[in-house]
């Protein structure tokens, strides 16, 4: 049922989309391969395991935020709308506005956690991880301007998720982190 303009609000989801881009940028800011020695003592391995799973959890939140944002944008038919502050009035029902406010807060929190987690995991990354780190940095350097549309923000965010996922998958596989560690 169509809503009257009295029942719709314009929360300008630009800030939510910008937050998704911020998650990508926050990780890039701190991510590097810092470990120089291959010798890893048990205490260091335990710490590495902990930061690895913290990074995985942040990545899960990032993926979920992208998925949720996509549903609101495509539900309203705004995917091709210009991604600029105030350039387009995007109208949401009040319940969606509340959800966008919640999502905005979650995205900002996820960006902070992602930056911290990738900074922490960088202490344990070595030359074998440089290819993935370089791929993330190269993609970030290739961003010369804001994405053109909300659909492009979603695509960029999914690409960032995949780049971080590739890094964590390679680390987890190499370090045997994705197996039962209770033994």
Helix content: 55-70%
Q: H/E element string?
A: HHHHH
- Which quaternary structure do these chains form? single chain
Q: Which structural class should the secondary elements be placed in?
A: mainly alpha
Summarize it.
This protein has about 180 residues and is mainly α. It has helices at about 15-30, 40-75, 95-120, 130-140, 150-175. It contains five helices and no strands.
What distinguishing features does this structure have?
mainly alpha, 5 helices, single chain, 183 residues
Overview of the molecule:
The protein has 183 residues and is mostly helical. The protein has one domain (7-33, 41-175). Helices cover 64% and strands 0% of the residues. The protein is built from 5 helices and no strands. It has helices at 14-30, 42-75, 94-122, 130-141, 150-175. Helix 2 packs antiparallel against helix 3 and helix 4 runs antiparallel to helix 5 (150-175). The longest helix is centred in the N-terminal third of the chain and has 34 residues, at 42-75. It starts with 13 loop residues before the first helix and ends in an 8-residue tail after the last helix. The model has no long low-confidence stretch (mean pLDDT 84).
